[in-house]
UniProtKB/TrEMBL annotation:
Domain (ABC transporter): residue spans on this chain: 8-236
Protein's recorded name: Amino acid/amide ABC transporter ATP-binding protein 2, HAAT family
Record-annotated membrane-spanning stretches: none
Gene Ontology BP, a term: L-amino acid transport
SUPFAM superfamilies: P-loop containing nucleoside triphosphate hydrolases (SSF52540)
A GO molecular function held by the record: branched-chain amino acid transmembrane transporter activity
Family: Belongs to the ABC transporter superfamily.
Organism: Natronoarchaeum philippinense
Presence of keyword Transport: yes
Annotated keywords: Amino-acid transport, ATP-binding, Nucleotide-binding, Transport
Keyword Transport: yes
Pfam families on file: ABC_tran (PF00005)
Amino acid sequence: MSDAPPALELDGVHSYYGESHVLRGVDLAVEQGENVALVGRNGVGKTTTLRSILGLTPPREGSVRLHGEDITGTETHEIARRGVGWVPEGRRMFSHLSVEENLRAATRPDADVAARVEEALDAFPELRDHRTRDAGDLSGGQQQMVAIARALVGDNDLLLVDEPSEGLAPLIVEEVVDALSSLAEDVTLLLVEQNFPMAMDLTDRFYLLDHGTVVESGDSDAVSQDDETIRRYLSA
Ligand SMILES: Nc1ncnc2c1ncn2[C@@H]1O[C@H](COP(=O)(O)OP(=O)(O)OP(=O)(O)O)[C@@H](O)[C@H]1O
């Protein structure tokens, strides 16, 4: 085991929207190379946790550290520059640009753009056949792959992925899971996901959030949806 600090560490994070106190002391850590799920029912603060890491909803209390360095209060573009990629909920992308143009637009200024795009297309062979099509014309699953490939092409080593299965048919979810699991071997992943079995399948460890705090955590392969605590916090 190395003594390297965690890739990501949240310590007592409190975040608000105006007066609304949403995160109430979130503590979590993701080691370098680890894949971690953040689960919990609707509205408990999963997306807000990702927004707090990215500086989009800066924490009012507590700290966020990236590879041991305090990034609390740092501008979002600077956090992105340090290798944190975001795959937002709803797969935001340029729907009137082609798949390839979407990927090119996500590369870093100093990158070998053509090489990065080819690498991303290698990771998602299905997209290769559609590289010149408008992203908005693709299926939901393919659009999710474009969204993930955009984070990958930016040469990020920590990916924050928000609800990749949302709104996708079960068969398509399987395709996205396959794509994410091969990707997960090479990057550090923090995955927000409502689909509990999928989240456990893709990750090493999980954190369960309720009302803005972590109420349970553990190994993903040692927990089932029937676990009493999981049921209590996941059922509506
Ligand atoms: N921009 C905003 N302004 C005010 N309140 C917000 C805003 N975004 C989210 N909230 C509220 O903050 C709380 C946490 O939302 P968040 O999106 O983090 O939850 P979540 O666990 O990701 O759930 P979901 O899966 O529904 O997105 C909810 O009560 C939500 O209504």
